[in-house]
Every structure is written in structure tokens, then in C-alpha cells.
């Protein structure tokens, strides 16, 4: 099992840096696996109005590209998990962005679905897929994962910029 850790900032925006790592794979044959991780765009919440009745939502996408190279590979399975840390403040139930007044953070969270019912934690997003290589072959599979961000309504905090740092871990 190999781990690739990509550190990124949530500065009222979630910006994840790309990375590469060996992917965990099993199968029959002579092959190697690798992967790259990237993010489509920062998760920017924009201006937050504490008097608004609705929460502030936005999304971004994490892309994982798994690649298998080799002489031949049969029944090759590539598996990994994508985890997001609690951030630089708060806890898993209530991630927090720190602003101009450190005693009044702005709560937010990151979710695995647009229903905002499952908080994205250190390991709850997993995936695996099967590939077969022909002689001297290469196969790659691209998977996109949406990160759903939400700032709950009615948080009366000081005006200014708010930030947190999230660590993204892709474990193979």
C-alpha cells in the first residue's frame, strides 16, 4: 500500500495540487501501475451573507487517472481511497475557516454527495476498476469525484477573508 498526500488550501476556495503515485493493483502478468491526481478548479464559496436563509454551496472535482503498463496483464484490479482531512481548524463534524477574528471561525463542511448527508472523511470515498492489457500494452482509466462544499446559513462572523487548509490523501 502506497500513499500520496496532496496538501491544499481552502481559502474560501479549495485548491488541490496535482500529484502522482504508484497505484495499488493486483492481477496476473508483468505490469506496473501509476496514478495522477488533479483538481478541476478551486472550490470558491465567494461572498457569504450571514442573513441569507439558505446555506452557501459550491463544488469542485478531484480527478484520478490510473495507468497500467506492461508486457501483459490479465484481471488487473486498481484500487484506492480518497480522503480529506478535517482541515486546519474544527473537527470532522464542523470544519472551520479562520478569519480576521480567530475566536469566531466560519463553519463549513465537505460532502461526498449533493444531498450533503455524508461528510467526506479520511477514507470513505473508495473506488476500484478492472483492466486487461494486450501484449506490450497500456491502459488508463480516468475517474472524477465531486467535492460538495457547504457553509451553513446564519453564522454571524466578522467581515473579511476566511481560510482553512485541507490535506487530501489518496491511498493505493
Structure description:
The protein has 172 residues and is mainly beta. The chain has a single domain, classed as Immunoglobulin-like (Sandwich), CATH 2.60.40. It is built from no helices and 11 strands. Strands 1, 2, 3, 4, 5, 6, 7, 8, 9, 10 and 11 form an 11-stranded antiparallel β-sheet that branches. The N and C termini lie close together (5 Å). The N terminus is likely disordered.
Task: Supply database-style keywords.
single chain, 172 residues, mainly beta, Immunoglobulin-like, 11-stranded antiparallel sheet, 0% helix, elongated, disordered N terminus
What's the number of extended β-strand segments? 11
SSE series: EEEEEEEEEEE
Number of individual domains: 1
- Termini, distance in Å? 5 Å
Beta percentage is over 45%
Question: Any idea what the CATH architecture is?
Answer: Sandwich
Layout of secondary structure:
Elements lengths: L2 E8 L3 E2 L3 E3 L2 E16 L16 E29 L5 E2 L2 E4 L8 E6 L13 E9 L3 E15 L12 E8 L1
